[in-house]
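Problem 12. The chain below contains 244 residues. Write out its predicted structure in token notation.
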Amino acid sequence: MIGLINATCIPVNVDISNARYAGKSHGHSTEAPATKVYNGSGARNVQTFFLTNDGKVLHCLPGYWDADSLKHEISFAMELNKIYKNKMLKPEKKDQLFKKYHEAHFDTHSRITTINSKLQNFDMKYVMKNNISDFIKQNPDEKEMHEKPYNFHYDQYFKTVDEVMHTRMAERPFKSFPEFDTANYVNIGTRFYDSNKDGCRDCAEDQKMLGKTAEKKEVQKRLNRSSEKRNTSAVFTGKKKSKI
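Solution.
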């Protein structure tokens, strides 16, 4: 996977520790061992952006993604890059194709990818409480969620992260990296994982934060200086010591 990324992209790291939309775990420290989680978990802590050589966002994977799913999305980003570079297409047509491709790509995901892209329990509660409508098919019975966690019919009530990701990207055709509204895009689940029950809570104003950080502008400068080296860039944004 590292070889694929290095062969197709310019890898760039961005520390978002000070971004107001970045998540914070009160039950899993940055020094604790990493564990197996669903695709999309830790969406506020880590994002993988794929950019054109002039800094337009082709795709963004929120949170953790397993290797097979990540490889599939990298290939998809390369296809979008071909559209962007096609000089025969007008900007309006490129935007239309961007939207069309993202809306259709969910249907190409493997069943395993979709099964592994469910919301975690505490994120389901956040989605319901805050009425994040692009995730909700119908409001579930909270009693059923908590009393029958292993028999809970997720597909009946919620969409998966891998579907909502493409729906949200379709609304953001070729946005420049500094202008990409990361905070709204990664509004997938709770900002604070308060397993210690110490009173931490999400702040409503954080949902309005667009995430136009100084780090993003600095990354754009770095990309501009090295844009001829690769067709695309992979920008990994995350907290400095975060583990998903």
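Discussion. The chain has a mean pLDDT of 78. Students who got a different answer should revisit the alignment rule from Section 12.3.
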